[in-house]
């Protein structure tokens, strides 16, 4: 009897461990050439969703990795989304806060490198299965924008709709 109870407990633990609370769907980071982000460098990220994926809400993040010498407390950028049916959304302008009012970086840091994961949309809906293309462009007043090492996109399943 003890043996059956132990086996049943192990099976239940194994099955519960196979169902994470939140599953990462997509994350990709692109290196900025020479760590100087120019207006004409527009990294793109392709997210391929299956029909079953349209039944979920998603949280969308922008990843930024920069050096401590980055001269601003924020980063303005535009994000253009092209849908699977080839229609494109007008570019959306977003501000990414990177430091507090005292100049302390908000992200995590090691040495003189800081990483930020900024939530830009909560409970986003992807109605169409297929490939979504996200294109980023920096919209700061300085060109090139110095000390930006990487920019990226992270999309996580948030909940079932």
UniProtKB/TrEMBL annotation:
Residues 1-23 form the signal peptide. This is Gliding motility lipoprotein GldH. The keyword Mitochondrion does not apply. It comes from the Bacteria. Transmembrane segments: none annotated. NCBIfam families: GldH_lipo. InterPro entries: Motility-assoc_lipoprot_GldH. Keywords: Signal. The keyword Signal applies. It comes from Chitinophaga caeni. Pfam families: GldH_lipo.
């Amino acid at each position: 009897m003890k043996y059956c109870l132990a086996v049943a407990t192990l099976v239940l633990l194994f099955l519960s461990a196979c169902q994470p609370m939140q599953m990462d769907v997509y994350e990709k980071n692109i290196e900025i050439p020479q760590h100087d982000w120019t207006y004409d460098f527009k990294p793109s990220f392709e997210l391929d969703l299956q029909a079953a994926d349209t039944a979920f809400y998603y949280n969308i993040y922008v990843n930024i990795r920069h050096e401590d010498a980055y001269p601003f407390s924020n980063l303005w950028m535009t994000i253009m989304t092209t849908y699977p049916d080839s229609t494109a959304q007008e570019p959306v302008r977003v501000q990414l806060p990177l430091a507090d009012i005292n100049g302390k970086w908000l992200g995590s840091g090691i040495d003189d490198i800081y990483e930020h994961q900024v939530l830009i949309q909560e409970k986003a809906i992807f109605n169409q299965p297929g490939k979504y293309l996200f294109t980023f462009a920096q919209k700061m007043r300085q060109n090139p924008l110095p000390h930006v090492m990487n920019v990226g996109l992270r999309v996580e399943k948030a909940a079932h709709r």
